[in-house]
Each structure stands twice: as C-alpha cells, then as structure tokens.
From TrEMBL:
<comment type="similarity">
    <text>Belongs to the ABC transporter superfamily.</text>
</comment>
<dbReference type="GO" id="GO:0016887">
    <property type="term" value="F:ATP hydrolysis activity"/>
</dbReference>
<dbReference type="InterPro" id="IPR050095">
    <property type="entry name" value="ECF_ABC_transporter_ATP-bd"/>
</dbReference>
<dbReference type="Pfam" id="PF00005">
    <property type="entry name" value="ABC_tran"/>
</dbReference>
<dbReference type="InterPro" id="IPR003439">
    <property type="entry name" value="ABC_transporter-like_ATP-bd"/>
</dbReference>
<dbReference type="GO" id="GO:0005524">
    <property type="term" value="F:ATP binding"/>
</dbReference>
<dbReference type="InterPro" id="IPR017871">
    <property type="entry name" value="ABC_transporter-like_CS"/>
</dbReference>
<dbReference type="GO" id="GO:0042626">
    <property type="term" value="F:ATPase-coupled transmembrane transporter activity"/>
</dbReference>
<keyword id="KW-0547">Nucleotide-binding</keyword>
<dbReference type="InterPro" id="IPR003593">
    <property type="entry name" value="AAA+_ATPase"/>
</dbReference>
<dbReference type="InterPro" id="IPR027417">
    <property type="entry name" value="P-loop_NTPase"/>
</dbReference>
<keyword id="KW-0813">Transport</keyword>
<feature type="domain" description="ABC transporter">
    <location>
        <begin position="6"/>
        <end position="237"/>
    </location>
</feature>
<protein>
    <submittedName>
        <fullName>Cobalt ABC transporter</fullName>
    </submittedName>
</protein>
<dbReference type="InterPro" id="IPR015856">
    <property type="entry name" value="ABC_transpr_CbiO/EcfA_su"/>
</dbReference>
<keyword id="KW-0067">ATP-binding</keyword>
<dbReference type="GO" id="GO:0043190">
    <property type="term" value="C:ATP-binding cassette (ABC) transporter complex"/>
</dbReference>
Length: 240
C-alpha cells in the first residue's frame, strides 16, 4: 500500500478542566480517499479537524501529514498541503474582488500574477461564477460565496481538502453544484465533517464515525447509510 497522506495515532485531546473529547483516535487516509467525518453534535468533529490543522495541541498521540508531524515548527509546511474550509465563507473572502481573493494565496506563495489569474478564471468558470470575478463578496449570495471561498482554497492546489459543514444554509441546487465541484476535484484526500448524511453519501466513499471519544466506525459509507439501527445508536437518526 502507498504511503498514507494523513495519519492520526492514539490522539487524546481534552479542553481544560474537562474529560477528553477525543480519547484514543487512530486512523489513516490514503491518496484517493474521499471520507465523511460523522458524529452527533458535540462528538468532537471540529475539535479533531482543528487538531489536524495544528490549531489545537493534543495531550498525547500524533498526527502526521505527508509523514511530517503536525507540530508548531512544521505548521507553515503542513498548511501548504492542507486546504481547510471554515464554516463561515466570509472568513476566507476579504479582498475587494473575488478574483483578488482567489489569486491572493498563490501570489503570496510566489506564483506569477498572470498564472494566478489564469488559474482563478479557470476555477470561476468551473464554478459558474465568471460573471462575478470583479465583484465583492458582499454582492454574492450565500451559495456563491461558499463556492468562491472554496475556489480560494483549491487555487492553492492542496493535497488534502478538509471541509467543516460545507452545505449549511445551501439550497438543493447549490448542494448539488458543490457536490459536482468536489467530485471533479483532483487532489489526494477529501475529508468532510457534516450532518448532511445523504449529501455525504453522494460525495464520499468512506465514513469515519466519532462516538464517545473514539472512532466507532471506519468503513464504506453506503452500507452504513442503509443501516438505520446502527446510525440511530450513534446518535445519527436518518432523515432528521
Ligand atoms: N472551548 C471549549 N471548551 C470546553 N469544551 C469545548 C470547547 N469547545 C468545544 N467543547 C466541547 O467539546 C465537545 C466537542 O465539540 P466539537 O465542536 O468538536 O463537536 P462537533 O462534533 O464538531 O459538534 P457539531 O456537530 O455540533 O459541530 C463538545 O462537548 C463541546 O461542548
């Protein structure tokens, strides 16, 4: 088997003066994996993602990205490999125009302006947002803003794309559009935390389910989505 892109080993994380939220998490992600991170509210999905990005430091255990430990001295290098979509797209759009938002990251990393602009226009065309290139984020709808924010991440060509609740507030048309964009994405690993189980079933193949501080399930998503009893037991009732 090829070298894993991301490894999480025996991870323990507790907020100050609380019992651990993550209590011995182990899994690895290989190139080509498209993974749903599932779990009831408060099960620790966002906490796990923040540990992966080095935004939180675990009490024990290890996280490796492309074999490099996620630790303070390596964070700049690690973040070059990972694209992370925040729940609020507005956090990612802060330039006067969408085109400048999308070219900002690559230019910061030394990509020539003309190349960054070509890439940005390509992404905008793919997302159906060409007409908005020179508009500000304030003039976009919630769905358009979400896709524009995703374009700012994909412009950096991450190996790993991590999204936290990407469909919140999107209507069915935009949920489908977002799914299509993600299905076309060519990076190595896609990891999405969401409560939107049916949508996850269209975009991902593998499910990791967090429950009581552990990975309760690591397996194919389709059989799990059909197993209402197991889902119910994990605090994930279907159709609610
Ligand atoms: N700053 C904090 N201090 C103490 N406890 C916290 C803090 N942030 C989160 N928690 C607790 O950690 C647990 C996990 O929270 P987390 O946000 O990671 O869960 P989640 O699975 O992402 O939830 P949701 O599905 O609602 O987004 C929850 O019990 C939460 O109350």
């Amino acid at each position: 088997m090829s070298q894993p892109v991301l490894v999480v080993r025996d991870l323990v994380y507790a907020y100050a003066k609380h019992q651990p939220v993550l209590n011995g998490i182990t899994f690895s992600l290989q190139s080509g994996d498209r993974v749903a991170l599932m779990g009831a509210t408060g099960s620790g999905k966002s906490t796990l993602l923040e540990n992966m990005m080095g935004l939180k430091q675990p009490q024990s255990g290890k996280i490796l990205v492309n074999n490099i430990p996620v630790e303070t001295p390596n964070l700049a290098q690690i973040r070059r490999f990972i694209g992370f979509g925040f729940q609020d797209a507005n956090d990612q759009l802060f330039m006067p125009t969408i085109l400048e938002d999308i070219t900002f990251g690559p230019r910061n990393y030394g990509v020539a302006n003309a190349i960054a602009i070509d890439k940005a226009r390509e992404l905008l065309a793919e997302f159906g947002l060409e007409a908005f290139a020179n508009r500000s984020a304030h003039e976009l709808s919630g769905g358009q803003r979400r896709l524009a924010a995703l374009a700012t991440i994909l412009a950096l060509e991450p190996d790993i794309l991590i999204l936290d609740e990407p469909t919140t507030g999107l209507d069915p048309g935009w949920r489908r559009k977002l799914a299509q964009v993600l299905l076309n994405w060519q990076g190595k690993v896609l990891l999405i935390a969401s409560h939107d189980l049916r949508w996850l079933g269209k975009v991902t193949q593998r499910a990791l389910v967090l429950s009581q501080g552990k990975i309760a399930i690591d397996g194919e998503i389709q059989p799990l989505l059909k197993d209402a009893v197991t889902l119910e037991g994990l605090g994930l009732p279907v159709d609610w």
